[in-house]
Specification:
The chain is built from 2 helices and 4 strands; from the N terminus they run ββββαα.
């Protein structure tokens, strides 16, 4: 399964997220972890495989160690 990078909006708050390609439909409302109301505002051309998403999901931990001095 491929994931697509999208811009989501909920009550004026925007967030960029990787979502499964089948849900990447402009104007669609999503429920993300029991949090209703996220609307797909934009769909970007970036696609990656599920394997790559899982591989990179914990990268933030290494970044924080490198940047906190």
């Amino acid at each position: 399964m491929d994931y697509q990078q999208c811009k989501l909006n909920k009550n004026g708050v925007t967030q960029t997220a990787w979502i499964p390609e089948k849900f990447a439909v402009k104007g669609k409302f999503l429920e993300i972890k029991d949090d209703n109301g996220w609307q797909v505002e934009e769909i970007y051309d970036f696609k990656v495989s599920e394997k790559e998403i899982l591989k990179r999901s914990r990268d933030f931990k290494k970044t924080r160690n490198a940047s906190d001095v």
